[in-house]
Write a structure and sequence with these properties.
heterotrimer; A alpha+beta (342); B mainly beta (65); C alpha/beta (350); A: 2 domains; seven-stranded mixed beta sheet; C: five-stranded parallel beta sheet; globular
Chain lengths: 342, 65, 350
């Protein structure tokens, strides 16, 4: 009988490793224009890459002179949650990190560290969701690595993805200007809300918002003065980063906060600040006031919740104009998210 | 001290009840209160600590809180 | 809009009062509401809102922290609420104990560990998890439930009203009115406060609740009354929750208890009754606890949590505040808990 659980030998480089890798490769069947994807390093012939894309009509309006490179490691508990799994956030995370810089992702590497005894079906399910996003976004997985550790050395599985992308203009997070408005590509914090819901056994229709942002951002890239995806640390962290790097003050309005009532309820149940909830498929950005309506209109084609959430002024930090008319500071979250009862 | 949030009783099964918090349902221990389906309770650390008076609840809601 | 109306009223009444008054909120969640909505910035100059000893993590005695951390370090599994894990003692915090290999679990709800590891005859390898119960009457019923359901408990629970009595006796503490804790009152009712001859309002936790409480306290000051008023009628009943109090009374006995900053307060703490002693970590591990206490080397600290808790001293006046003492490197409990005055001051200060 063949074991259905990952064995140490499957990460040892021998025949069993080969078998496992070939199973993974069979699922990850999209390599785009990359060659030598079974060698030590994948190769992309840039000239034929451009010709191919232009022929296919993918990047006709895209002129790139800059290479953007990023990497991210992913651990999540639980591995499977409403709206996604660790595989989906691992590929979306890296694609989105490139996208918010204004880049078009062209290739991703995938490293897996798997705990001995991990169910093979779960592994293949994770790989499949990576492939689904890879196909959907036409971003190939071109190289990778697989290791298996002894039981107890890690928690089930860890995934690292690195990615390269090409960009014309880089969108930095330090470009917000006084007079800009702050926009959100949709309601925020649903990823953390969904994770907490499955961890604490809540029943809710809130799903992880994880999804690739390439098209959305490309469609409005030329208007954005600063852009970030509010992943770890949530909107509190990224807005503070934009405010600090741009040397401006951001004021949000409590009347138009981008949170669903369920997200607010989960935040209140556990005593965890909703501004620290992560999203895995949203971005916040600043745009000139005159472009705001145009940008929102375009973004609403992708997500009807896209809206203006605040304004940029002189000063420092991120502030919330409360319902009762006072202003309070929104700080970058500290430490990890721990439920509180008091 | 004591973070607590109000929720609505949806289902009762002995000491536990399914309580709805604005679209999020959680099992809550109701052994400290006498409640019926449809009533509101204040929940602290997994326990309903007291029943809410419906009339008084609406009063606050009208201020858009 | 209601807010503007009530804020205008408060301004009016402050003029009538025409002297400096200090209202103390007795519940950390009120402190949080006040900070979250920026209420202090909307108050008239002569109405000052100060924080009292309403954060259960903050008032827990140093010795209790040392004992529970000592037990965890001795290899006994411990479960606690999120806020309690980071409070530093002489042996570090429970979180630090976990980093050293102790079995420390954070729960939102004590029933998360119920059923899983009930009290069994003590074996070297398979020790039952100790639930560290702390907090006032709001949280105590959950711990009582845990005891009734067979869990092992270390109780740092406290009663609320004895602390109010001590504050009123202290001549250094100048208070003109109390905003009484809404959720504690849901259990203990409002009658118990009548013994204190000072304006009091039991209030809820929305911004409007707190504004109303300030408004009602101002009325009492103007008319010279000292009443217990209930603003939180949607939840708090005159007699409180009898069922919950019965459960507390069945499980716990009232003992003298040490509070951070306030010292030992007579009849202010709750320990498990004798009939539950096989589930009382303090009894079961009495020898180990005696040893932990003997070995403790008390670290000197310039932390002034105690005075902050009594409203004598403000967080920002502490020489450690923001410099040495931050939420990432707390020197005292008031900086650890999300309800601690120092933590709130740190997070919300302009």
């Amino acid at each position: 009988m063949k074991s259905n659980f990952i064995e140490l030998e499957q990460g040892a480089g021998g025949k069993k490793s080969e078998e496992l890798i070939s199973k993974i490769r069979k699922i990850l069947d999209y390599t785009g224009q990359w060659k030598n994807t079974a060698d030590d390093g994948a190769v992309l012939d840039l000239q034929s890459f451009w010709t191919w894309h232009v022929q296919k009509g993918h990047t006709t309006s895209f002129s790139a002179s800059k290479l953007v490179f990023t990497t991210d490691a992913f651990i999540v508990d639980p591995l499977f949650f409403s709206g996604g799994d660790i595989g989906k956030i691992a590929i979306c995370g890296t694609i989105n990190d490139l996208a918010v810089m204004g880049a078009r992702p062209i290739g991703i590497s995938l490293s897996l560290v798997i705990e001995e005894g991990f169910p093979e079906d779960d592994l293949l399910k994770i790989i499949k969701s990576i492939n689904d996003i890879s196909r959907e976004t036409r971003v190939p997985i071109v190289t990778g690595d697989t290791k298996v550790t002894e039981k107890g050395k890690i928690d089930k599985i860890e995934i690292t993805t690195s990615g390269v992308g090409l960009a014309g203009n880089i969108i930095s997070n330090g470009g917000a200007r006084v007079g800009d408005v702050v926009i959100s590509s949709g309601d925020l914090g649903e990823h953390t809300a969904a994770i907490l819901a499955s961890r604490f056994n809540y029943k809710t229709r809130v799903k992880s918002d994880s999804r690739p942002l390439v098209k959305e951002i490309q469609s409005v890239a030329k208007y954005l003065t600063a852009c970030k995806d509010p992943t770890r640390g949530g909107s509190a962290a990224v807005l503070n980063e934009i405010a600090e790097k741009s040397k401006i003050k951001i004021v949000l309005d409590e009347k138009t906060l981008p949170f669903k009532k369920e997200v607010v309820a989960i935040s209140e149940l556990l005593g965890i600040d909703k501004f620290s909830f992560a999203s895995e498929g949203r971005f916040v950005a600043t745009v000139a006031k005159k472009d705001a309506d145009k940008v929102i209109k375009i973004l609403q084609k992708y997500n009807s919740e896209a809206k203006i959430i605040g304004s940029v002024g002189r000063g420092r930090g991120v502030w919330l104009k409360t319902l009762i008319g006072s202003q309070k500071k929104i700080e970058t979250p500290r430490g990890k998210l721990v439920p509180r009862i008091c | 001290m004591c973070l607590a949030i109000p929720g609505k009783i949806v289902k009762i099964h002995s000491q536990l009840a399914t309580v709805d918090f604005n679209g999020v349902e959680k099992e809550i221990n109701i052994s400290l209160v006498d409640v019926k389906i449809g009533e509101y309770v204040m929940v602290h650390a997994g326990f309903a600590i007291e029943k809410m008076e419906k009339g008084h609840m609406d009063e606050l809601k009208s201020y858009g809180i | 809009m209601e807010y503007e109306k009530i804020l205008a009223e408060i301004q009016e009444k402050a003029k009538k009062i025409n002297r400096q008054v200090r209202f103390m909120e007795l519940c950390g969640t009120h402190a949080e509401t006040i900070a979250k909505h920026g209420i202090k910035s909307l108050m008239p100059e002569n109405i000052k809102l100060i924080s009292g000893p309403g954060c259960p993590v903050c008032v827990t005695g140093q010795e209790d922290i040392d004992i529970i951390v000592g037990l965890a370090l001795a290899g006994i599994p411990v479960a606690c609420y999120g806020d309690a894990a980071g409070v530093p003692g002489n042996l570090g915090s429970l979180e630090e104990a976990r980093q050293k290999g102790a079995d420390v679990r954070i729960v939102y709800d004590v029933s998360e560990i119920a059923g899983a590891r009930l009290v069994e005859p003590l074996q070297e390898q398979n020790k039952p998890t100790i639930f560290w119960g702390l907090g006032f009457e709001t949280t105590t019923p959950a711990t009582a439930w845990a005891v009734a359901n067979g869990l092992m408990v270390f109780s740092s629970h406290k009663l609320f009203s004895p602390a109010m009595e001590i504050l009123l006796k202290n001549k250094n503490v100048k208070i003109d009115g109390f905003i009484n804790p809404g959720h504690v009152s849901a259990i203990i009712g409002t009658q118990i406060y009548k013994q204190f001859k000072i304006p009091q309002v039991v209030a809820g936790f929305e911004a409007l609740d707190v504004l109303r409480a300030v408004d009602m306290l101002s009325d009492q000051i103007i008319s010279g009354k000292t009443e217990v008023q209930n603003e939180y009628t949607r939840l708090v009943k005159k007699d409180g929750n009898k069922k919950a109090r019965e459960l507390i009374n069945d499980t716990f006995e009232i003992v003298d208890s040490k509070w951070r900053g306030l010292g030992v307060i007579e009849k202010s703490g709750l320990k498990l009754k004798k009939k539950y002693q096989t589930q009382d970590a303090e009894f079961v591990y009495r020898d180990l606890i005696a040893k932990i206490k003997k070995d403790i080397k008390v670290k000197p600290s310039a932390c002034r949590c105690g005075e902050v808790l009594q409203g004598i001293f403000e967080s920002r006046e502490c020489p450690l505040f923001r410099k040495v003492c931050t939420p990432d490197n707390p020197q005292g409990a008031c900086m650890v808990s999300g309800e601690g005055s120092c933590n709130i001051e740190y997070r919300y200060e302009k």
